[in-house]
């Protein structure tokens, strides 16, 4: 994946840029009376191991802020967007949150990855700061927290939708599961998939797992090939998927591969060898091939701003900011209670689909099923939960 | 049939362990040093293959030829590491060289992380698959290459002048020096040969797994070390046998017991060998010199 080489440069540039913005924001806050602007805090890892996720999410958020401000702001007030880098670290995230809270933000957009998001969610909920995480998928982040919402679907929800798809659209009966036993993400998807698949009368013919450091999966795959699985669900991120998919074909696995959003990027990872994932399907937040006007407008605006295709993270970040705008407008106030009650009952129509919230503040929304064909991601169908 | 397939899977994995274990065992045999950076030499070999492959593609040459620059580079790297990191410590307590080896390993990994990136890179298919064969092309090439390298290495050690010098040095530094053997050359030569074998290992590794990361050498290196101990550290055929056994045990554990327990079995073997026969299968009991 070529962009990894540029991550340090991008991150450095971004941090310099943000430092500059930060001091700028500080100055303007000191000179202007507060109340002229709506202060919104943002948390994201802009340096460190997961910087690529933070950076693309923030790009989407900043694009939304720019558009909203250019169109007159929220209820006539400009958004003042205060960004803090948390380096993908829980301690840094907690400190950055405290700093943002001290600046008097009315709401928080972030955090990006699940672990720091969970820590910040606890604090924001205690302080009654409305928080929307664009991308934190772990179930506990929002459960039982009045002030915390998310735009993305959860890990278990993806497993559920995959089982529904396998049953209804693939009409298979024998399914196999191959999981990473050191990943909460992988386990979360697999568990929900298994429960739903069994509820629907599918037979789970093999359940295998591997460790994070493994590169050889031939033992597990030979077994899966031996039991004649028709569908193999592999919930993991694209780097592992690339390895597993190549070895699966060698081991004689003929099953259709399905997986969650971590698959996004697998084609780029496989470069010249994409036939091993041909026909594979995965759930995602949206598809760049979706012809809906809202989606295409977003993609064009994003390309014009950053000169690259937006990732699902960018789309989720973009939606998070617009969702906050709608909630403040509908609540008619930037008070915490007004925002939270507006969010709870929101009917939001974003780039990543139309959504409402359930009791745990998890979005009830449809998922895009992406099919890999000839090394391209095509939109297979948009699947609504049943 | 499935059992046979699983056995072959294990043999293939074991061949790669064996090739790395050769480097461990030779270096240990001559300098009593466990070179924990050895797996990282294989990792660098993988990166050299990654960066030279476009050249071979543009010249229309077979991709496996990229093993040549990898071998040359790894030989140089092994030689330089020995000169800079280990030679000055030759008369220090053994713990000093051990810690240095860990330091070198981290250095090699971090250089790659800093200048190339932490993400995984993909290597194009090196050997074209042939559906007419009952087993994969990768399997045949891996196992045959390992067997050929083992034979060549044994011949070199027992028949050639330099090989005999290495054997003599590993028996007794001072006696070797007295009969006119250049001990320093012998030790350097061992590092260089071990690194060249590791470079061949990197080609076989990327042909099968097609992905390189900066940390891929750590776990491979540790497992190869277990293989070397199992076969009898210091013994060349022992390293290969140990590698094969370890690969098969790991694979069969995954297939028939539990994939979670595979690593536990591998390291359990290390514990058992150290308790029951610390010298390993082919190891000879060292007499204390008085």
UniProtKB/TrEMBL annotation, chain A:
Gene3D superfamilies noted in UniProt: 3.40.50.2300
PROSITE patterns: PROKAR_LIPOPROTEIN
Taxonomic superkingdom: Bacteria
Signal peptide: 1-25
Native source organism of the sequence: Peptoniphilus equinus
Keyword annotations from UniProtKB, A to Z: Amino-acid transport, Signal, Transport
Domain (Leucine-binding protein): residue spans on this chain: 37-375
Cited PANTHER family: LEUCINE-SPECIFIC-BINDING PROTEIN, PERIPLASMIC BINDING PROTEIN OF ABC TRANSPORTER FOR NATURAL AMINO ACIDS
Family stated for the protein in its record: Belongs to the leucine-binding protein family.
Protein known as: ABC transporter substrate-binding protein
Cited InterPro entries: BCAA_transport, Leu-bd, Leu_Ile_Val-bd, Peripla_BP_I
From TrEMBL, chain B:
Pfam family, one: BPD_transp_2
Subcellular location: Cell membrane
Keyword annotations of the record: Amino-acid transport, Cell inner membrane, Cell membrane, Membrane, Transmembrane, Transmembrane helix, Transport
Source organism superkingdom: Bacteria
InterPro entries recorded: ABC_transp_permease, BCAA_transport_permease
Membrane topology: Multi-pass membrane protein
Main localization of the protein described in the UniProt heading: membrane
Transmembrane segments: 12-30, 42-61, 67-86, 98-117, 137-157, 178-205, 225-249, 261-282
Similarity comment text for this entry: Belongs to the binding-protein-dependent transport system permease family. LivHM subfamily.
Name of protein: Branched-chain amino acid ABC transporter permease
Organism of provenance: Peptoniphilus equinus
């Amino acid at each position: 994946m070529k962009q990894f080489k540029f991550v340090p440069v991008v991150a450095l540039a971004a941090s310099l840029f943000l430092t500059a913005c930060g001091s700028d924001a500080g100055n303007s806050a000191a000179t202007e009376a507060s109340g002229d602007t709506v202060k919104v805090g943002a948390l994201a890892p802009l340096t460190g191991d997961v910087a690529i996720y933070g950076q693309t999410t923030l790009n989407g958020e900043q694009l939304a802020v720019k558009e909203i401000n250019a169109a007159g702001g929220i209820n006539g007030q400009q958004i003042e967007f205060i960004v803090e880098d948390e380096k993908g670290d829980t301690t840094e995230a907690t400190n950055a949150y405290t700093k943002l809270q001290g600046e008097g933000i009315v709401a928080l957009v972030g955090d990006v990855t699940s672990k720091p998001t969970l820590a910040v969610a606890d604090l924001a909920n205690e302080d009654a700061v409305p928080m929307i995480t664009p991308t934190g998928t772990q179930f506990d982040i929002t459960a039982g927290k009045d002030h915390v919402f998310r735009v993305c679907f959860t890990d278990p929800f993806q497993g559920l939708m995959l089982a529904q798809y396998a049953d209804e659209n693939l009409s298979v009966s024998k399914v196999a599961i191959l999981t990473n036993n050191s990943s909460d993400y992988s386990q979360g998807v697999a568990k929900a998939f298994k429960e739903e698949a069994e509820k629907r009368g599918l037979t789970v013919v093999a359940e295998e797992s591997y460790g994070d450091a493994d590169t050889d999966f031939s033992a597990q795959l030979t077994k899966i090939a031996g039991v004649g699985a028709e569908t193999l669900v592999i919930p993991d991120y694209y780097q592992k998927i690339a390895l597993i998919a190549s070895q699966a074909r060698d081991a004689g696995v003929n099953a259709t591969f399905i997986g969650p959003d971590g698959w996004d990027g697998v084609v780029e990872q496989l470069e010249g060898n994409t036939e091993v994932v041909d026909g594979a399907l995965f759930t995602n937040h949206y598809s760049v091939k979706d012809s809906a006007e809202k989606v295409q407008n977003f993609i064009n605006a994003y390309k014009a701003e950053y000169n690259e295709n937006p990732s699902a993270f960018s789309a989720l970040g973009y939606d998070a900011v617009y969702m906050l705008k709608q909630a403040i407008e509908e609540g008619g106030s930037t008070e915490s209670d007004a925002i939270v009650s507006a969010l709870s009952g929101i009917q939001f129509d974003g780039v990543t689909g139309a959504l409402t919230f359930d009791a745990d503040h998890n979005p009830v929304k449809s998922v895009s099923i992406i099919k890999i064909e000839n090394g391209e991601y095509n939109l297979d169908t948009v699947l609504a939960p049943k | 049939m499935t059992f046979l397939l699983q056995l072959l899977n294990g043999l293939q994995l074991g061949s790669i362990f064996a090739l790395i274990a050769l480097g461990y065992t030779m270096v240990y045999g001559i300098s009593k040093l466990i070179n924990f950076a050895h797996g990282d030499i294989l990792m660098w070999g993988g990166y050299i293959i990654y960066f030279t492959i476009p050249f071979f593609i543009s010249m229309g040459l077979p991709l496996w030829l990229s093993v040549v620059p990898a071998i040359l580079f790894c030989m140089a790297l092994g030689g330089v590491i020995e000169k800079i990191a280990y030679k000055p410590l030759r008369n220090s307590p053994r713990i000093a060289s051990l810690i240095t080896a860990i330091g070198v390993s981290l250095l090699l990994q971090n250089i790659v992380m800093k200048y190339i990136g932490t993400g995984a890179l993909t290597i194009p298919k090196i050997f074209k698959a042939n559906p007419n064969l009952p087993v994969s092309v990768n399997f045949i090439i891996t196992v045959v290459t390992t067997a050929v390298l083992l034979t060549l290495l044994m011949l070199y050690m027992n028949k050639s002048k330099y090989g005999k010098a290495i054997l003599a040095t590993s028996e007794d530094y001072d006696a070797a020096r007295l009969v006119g053997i250049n001990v320093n050359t012998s030790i350097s030569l061992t590092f260089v040969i071990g690194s060249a074998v590791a470079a061949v290992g990197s080609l076989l590794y990327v042909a099968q797994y097609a992905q390189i990361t900066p940390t891929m050498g750590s776990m491979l290196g540790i497992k190869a070390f277990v293989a070397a101990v199992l076969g009898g550290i210091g013994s060349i055929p022992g390293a290969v046998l140990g590698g094969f056994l370890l690969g098969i045990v790991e694979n069969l554990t995954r297939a028939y017991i539990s994939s979670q327990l595979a690593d536990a079995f591998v390291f359990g073997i290390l514990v058992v060998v150290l308790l029951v026969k610390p010298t390993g299968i082919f190891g000879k009991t060292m007499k204390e010199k008085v």
